[in-house]
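Any chance you'd type out a single protein's sequence alongside its tokenized fold?
>
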Amino acid sequence: MHHLAEGIRRFQEEVFPAKANLFAGLGAVHRPSTLFVGCSDARVVPELITQQEPGELFVIRTAGNLVPAYAPGADGVTASIEYAVAVLGVSDIVVCGHSACGAMTAIAEGHDLTGMPAIADWLRHADSAPGRTAPGDRDAVGALVRDNVAAQLANLATHPSVARALAKGTVRMHGWIFDIPTGTVDELDAGDLRPQVA
């Protein structure tokens, strides 16, 4: 915990003073333009990758950047999506997968998750990702990461607030793949999964 306390001290003494006006404005206004759905993996930091200031991204991070398809009832991911789209009025939604994803690796390699029932149940939200790979395919994880991003975009479109915004043309959806070792970001065409450089 000492390193976290030291980080807070540096933030308060070195970073905050240079951005005091920004934070003063953010104290009264919250208008991010983008909902960023990313993986909870500590190596994938949306604000760092996109070089956005505080207040510019509304971020949801889940294991495997999974978005459950809409279902009635209380759900933190669903509530966050609804808030970002219906209340904050974001104009763009990004689902960002990444290389070496532990969740996608567990699925692609068929890991035994019987001792981790919550994880096994959560990963079922990736069931609609076709994972078109042959047994022993060296890039099975990479292929599944790409398919999963497209599947999660489809899941997002089942949420009423997103469906309404898409119908009105007030929101655009994007699928990205972040490659950790190279820092590159590929944008997927959700229709045919052809990568395009972002």
Q: What stands out?
A: The longest helix spans residues 140-156.
